[in-house]
Amino acid sequence: MEVWELVARESIRDCIARYNANGDSGRIDQMVEVFAPDGIMETGSGRYEGREAIHAFMSSVVARGRAQPSAAASESIVMTPTEEWIARGGVPFIRHFTATTQIDVLSETSARSRSYYLFLTVHGLDHWGRYLDEFAPVDGKWLITHRREITDAAFEGGWGARAAESGDIDHLTRPLQF
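User: That's the sequence. What structure does it adopt?
Assistant: Structure tokens below.
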């Protein structure tokens, strides 16, 4: 293996980590910087082309995640785990964990990766799936040129299950070739 390939692999790992860490912290500007300017993100709700479109989509996900419980929910004695957490003074959070990242460096200008991810909230494991990514160097940095996010499953009643019902995330229904 040549040095440029080692640099590509580590840069790609860093890119994937920055996407999750910045997204979990609500830093959408920094999250979107891991995409090439003309990068593409595909989820269950659609295809977003370019950083501006990806930013708008991610911002809408953050806004929905911060939505306050409805009046009916606050009057109910049955609360979701997140509502109960907030009622006890806790601050809601999300955490993505990415694992088993397999990187194929195809050339000095092209690479692909496949990663598993887990999504945790205050109530524990919420949903899980895969990232299928393509990368290219842009101004000396390996960036995502195309990401397909696939959710394999979600716990009933959790954020992922609700997002799947609304089409925000993609539930895999057939085997996928990459």
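Residues 3-166 form a domain with the Nuclear Transport Factor 2; Chain: A, fold (CATH 3.10.450.50).
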